[in-house]
Amino acid sequence: MPGLPPPPPPPPLLRLLLLGVALLLAAARVGSHEEPGQRSSGPGPSPSTAAPATGTPSTGPSSRSSPALDPDADKEYSGGKMTVKALHDGSDVFFLLQVDSDYVYSPGNSNKCPSVALMFQIGQSATYHDMGGCKEGTDTCTSKTCKGHEVDIMHFSIGNAIPGRLYGGNHIDNAEGNGGDRFGHLVDLYAWTPHCRYLDGTGPSGNDSSGQNNWRGAWWHSSLSIESGFVQEDSPYGSDGRKGTYYFEFSRPLSTMDRLQQDVQFTIGESSKISAAFWYPVDGTPWHGSGHFAINCDWVSLDITSARSTLTKSTSTSSWDVASVFSFLLSVIALCLSIFAIYRILRPKSFQFSPMEVSME
Questions:
Q1: End-to-end alpha-carbon separation of the chain, Å?
Q2: Per-residue b or e along 94-113, where b marks 16 or more CB atoms closer than 10 Å to that residue's CB
Q3: Most buried among 16, 40, 126, 245, using CB within 10 Å?
Q4: In the prediction, which pLDDT does 44 show?
Q5: pLDDT higher than 60, residue 318
């Protein structure tokens, strides 16, 4: 009796699908060896280069903080590191400052509470040192004599601010045409030197009603634990000396309606210069204005990159993540099995015939 005939080869479509499965398996194997960080929006920043402010969160400089006026290593802030992160959504720019530090809070006494500030270059000649670097004295510094030395400053002193609550620009202070904040002291300032520093909308030549506080912000400490939120009666909100990290979050429009050179204007595709500072009552001693710790001893570059170009670059330089690969792989396998089952059902039937001998007597 002859053997069974060999089964017919699979149709071309099925062969292509099986080949696709093999290629996807190879792709998944390569993707699983992707180095950590390859999917980031750009190369990681060095201590002297800020992270890009992109459509996805990016980690910025993380380093020991040194006294701004005496940046010796032996005088660094001993509590921990300060990290700055930034991103934008095409309309607003967002900043996160993280500072490793024991919890301390003295209600109503800002100099015995932590405080932070961001400073940005506005004028092309504005230096990091001397807060703009204008050579004029307090009696002669004006928008004309110090033209080109403008810096933009956001300063947040938390002595009257409830953790987790929003402070900064509000209708009352903005209606008066200045960058103040009577509720939480998250203020919007500009300066030419440390001694020529003013709230937006105010100055040596008189006030301007167009001044506004464009910043919003809040603070928190990782040792605080409450789900319902704090109110002022809960002050001091936690126990002094508890280990943890301070978080300061801020936001501001990329562009403001400032017409007095008092706000930095962020432009997508361009860079800005930034510095970050932190005040802390070391050993319970109230801090003073020049006693802050800085993340760097000069300006740090902040790149306001395009979210579209960043995403395109990220896609072209990285493989799919493993979950996406296997999800797609399972779908393809299911499709292949379905097609193969239909093929087995509908393929032409073959019959085996056995020879028969008929004897005629």
A1: 26
A2: bbbbbbbbebbbbeeebbbb
A3: 126
A4: 30
A5: no
Statement: residue 311 has pLDDT above 60: no
Lookup: tokens for 90: 């095409």
C-alpha distances out from residue 116 to 82, 86, 89, 274, 278, Å: 11, 15, 24, 13, 5
Q: Which tokens sit at 96? A: 């996160």
Q: Check: CB of residue 234 under 8 Å from CB of residue 171.
A: no
> Which tens digit of pLDDT belongs to each residue from 55-74?
444 445 554 454 544 445 55
Alpha-carbon torsion angle 20, 23, 25, 26, nearest 10: 180
CB 138 within 8 A of CB 174: no
**Residue at 42: amino acid letter:** G
37 Rama class: left (phi>0) / alpha (psi -120 to 50) / beta? left
pLDDT of residue 173: 93
| Two tokens, residue 170 | 């509000």
**Taking the model in full, what pTM does it have?**
0.67
Strand, helix or coil for residue 96: strand
Mean pLDDT of 299-310: 76
Instruction: Please choose, from the candidates 222, 103, 109, 107, the residue with its C-alpha nearest in 3D space to the C-alpha of residue 162.
Output: 107
